[in-house]
Amino acid sequence: MSSAAPLSRRRVLLGASAAACLCGGGARAGAEETLLTLSGLVDRGAGSDVRFDAAGLRALDWREIVTYTIWTEGPQRLAGPTLASVLEAAGARGAWLDAVALNDYRVRIPASDAGLGVIVAMERAGERMAIRDKGPLWIIYPQTEAEAQIGAHNERMIWQLREIVVR
User: Fold this and answer.
1) What is the CATH number of the domain that holds 75?
2) How far is residue 52's CA from residue 7's CA, in Å, rounded to a whole number?
3) Sign of the alpha-carbon dihedral angle for 127, 128, 133, 134
4) Domains in the chain: how many in total?
5) Coil, strand or helix: which one is 138?
6) How far apart are CA 123 and CA 115, in angstroms?
7) Could you write out the DSSP letters of every residue in 48-71?
């Protein structure tokens, strides 16, 4: 880990803490809403959540990838923080991730998949994703068109992501 990593992590967690306070005590002018909550085996121990707003997610290891999915046509240009950087910033220390969508749909993802270049996409084709377009967050695996058709990771690419429970 580089010497800049602790400062970066502190900044993200401080931003996340500020977002958590804003969510609990009413919105303030200019405050961003929490987009992603990590709970379970995270930095602050069981029972304490780590929350990220858009700025907190953008401060992480941001990547843009071109990938294919069975739900879209042609190559898709998606961008967001790597799943690995989200887990690191939250201090996640579990082997499994239960990803939860806005409608409470759930999928279980091995934490080791974070090493596959998975991103938590916030943008498609340079634009923030709306809820109606699988946003605001979508777990995306980099894959070829042929790999998308085989479907090795399709069931793990949950859209409208709101929470990750680390187990």
Assistant:
1) 3.90.420.10
2) 17
3) positive
4) 1
5) strand
6) 21
7) --EEE-HHHHHTS-EEEEEE--TT
Query: Which domain range does residue 157 map to?
Result: 4-166
Whether the full predicted model's pTM is greater than 0.85, yes or no, is no
Give the integer Cα–Cα distance in Å for 67 and 100.
22
DSSP 8-state code for residue 125? T
Tell me: pLDDT of 6 over 60. no
E-assigned strand segments in the chain: 36-40, 50-52, 62-67, 76-81, 96-101, 106-110, 119-121, 123-124, 127-128, 138-140, 161-166
Q: What is the pLDDT of residues 38-73, one digit of tens each?
A: 999 998 655 689 999 999 999 999 999 999 999 999
pLDDT, averaged across the chain: 85
